[in-house]
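Could someone model iron/sulfur cluster with this protein?
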Amino acid sequence: MMNEIKNPLEIYAALAKTNCGQCGVPSCMAFAAAVLQGQKQLAGCPYLESGIAEQLGQRVVRRRCLEDDHRQAIQLLQRQVAELDFSSLAPRLGARLVDGNLAINCLGKDFLLTPAGGLVSECHLNHWIHVPLLYYCLLCQGKEVQGEWVSYATLPGAAEWSQYFSHRCEEPLRQLADAHRELVFELLHLFGATPVALSGGADHSLLILPLPKVPFLINYWEPEEGFASKLNILLDRSAEENINAQSINLLARGIIEMFRQLILRHSKEGKLF
Ligand code: SF4
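Reply:
Sure, complex below.
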C-alpha cells in the first residue's frame, strides 16, 4: 500500500519553493497546507508536473476541517427541510412563496430557500446565514414579537455560546462603533434598522430584523470622559420559540463580520482602528 501523506512538508518537498503565489496563496508552504485541508488541488500549482501531482494526489489524506463539519450540518438540516410543506410554513415564518421557493427577509434583503434547502442569493451573508435559515424553517413556531427584551445569555441553550456572543459579537460591534460611529449607523440604517425609544438610558437603540420573527435590539452608550462605551444586543423573548441560540449567534457574528468587511473596504487606510 502506498504511504499516505498526512504532513504538509511532504507536499512542500515536491514544490518549486519560489513562493510565486500563482496558485492563489502566498507561499508554497501555505499551498501544501491548503491541499491537505482540501481547499486546493495539487493541479493548482502550474510548476508541479502533472505526473507527480497525480502520484502525490493518490497519497494525500485530507484532514477533516471546519468546512466539512459545516457542510455536513447543512446537509443534515436540508434533508429535514426538504420534508416541509413550504406553503403552510411561509405564513408562520413571515416569509413568502416565490416560484415554489421560500423568500425569507434578512436585514431588508430576500433570501430564497429552494424546496431542497438550497440557498439562492448573492449577499455577503451567505456563508453565515444558511444554517440559521434552515433552523428557522425547522424551529419557528410563529410566535409574535412580545416587546420583552432579554439578554442572549437568558435564552434556552445559550449557556455554551454566551461567552462567544459577548466576545465575538457585542464587543467587536462596540469597537467598530467607537472607531467608525457614523459608518456603523449608516450601515445599520442601510440594512433596515429603525430607532427605538428605549432602552436603559442608551444613547442609541436600534431595531434590526435578521429574520422576520427574530429581531435584535442594539443598544449603544457612547464613551464619556472617564467611561468606556457600552454595547449590548438584546433579543425579544419570543426568539426562544422561533429559533435556537446557536443560530442567533451565527446571525450576529455574520452581520458584524459583514459590517467589518464593508467598513474595511471604505476606510481610507485599509485598516479598521
Ligand atoms: S504556484 Fe507553486 S511554486 Fe508558486 S507559490 Fe504556489 S505552490 Fe509555490
